[in-house]
Design brief:
Length: 211
């Protein structure tokens, strides 16, 4: 799903302050999926409640482009979008068109002969926290991310998230499960070998009498 976008293929090469969530389905640019995307983004943007004190703030041009990408995605069920770049007016009063890059937000894209998106399978949204915040604040934000992903739902939409903290936790859990199974397997094998050797010794010491 991400293979056609080099930015998406490097999505896991991130730092502890960066978090990602993804929505996926057969065709993502539909009203239910876009509403789920917008609702989840709004709740994450305003955590802790009512402010963005933990999120890193980029330059005004960067913030403006991020806002335009969000607006474009919200309108995507009704308008045709070209890919990986589209052209939009940055304000209602302006007739000038600005180029906005969508390749880092929309994935699994198929286009028609005119370059317009005919199908898109995933939406990606990333967050970066400020440098210098505490580990407790990072953990709190990560817990909220996981909670909000689980409570956000839409028909036929798959939600998934990733962060370095969650990834390390999943790896540790997987290794722990594997370790337990290895111990169980080793115990069963040891018991089998013990019983087999006991049976072999019993056969060797058996005596026979001739009458």
């Amino acid at each position: 799903m991400w293979a056609n976008n080099f930015l998406w293929s490097a999505v896991f090469q991130r730092k502890n302050h960066e978090f990602i969530f993804r929505l996926a389905r057969d065709t993502i640019l539909r009203k239910d999926a876009v509403l789920a995307y917008s609702a989840l983004k709004k709740r994450l943007d305003n955590y802790p409640v009512g402010n963005k004190e933990l999120l890193e703030v980029c330059s005004p041009d960067c913030e403006l482009e991020k806002e335009m990408v969000d607006k474009i995605i919200k309108k995507s069920p009704q308008v045709a979008l070209t890919y990986p770049e589209t052209f939009v007016s940055m304000s209602k009063d302006s007739t000038n068109l600005s180029r906005v890059y969508l390749g880092s937000a929309i994935g699994g894209v198929e286009t028609d002969s005119d370059g317009a998106i005919s199908r898109a399978q995933a939406l990606l949204l990333s967050f970066k926290l400020r440098e210098g915040i505490t580990d407790e604040q990072i953990a709190s934000w990560a817990d909220n991310l996981e909670e909000q992903v689980h409570v956000t739902s839409a028909n036929n939409v798959s939600l998934s998230f990733w962060s370095p903290l969650s990834f390390s936790s999943w790896v540790i859990q997987a290794l722990s499960k594997s370790y337990r199974w290895i111990l169980v397997s080793a115990s069963v094998l040891s018991l089998f070998c013990f019983l087999a050797s006991f049976g072999a010794n019993a056969y060797q010491v058996r005596t026979f009498s001739i009458t």
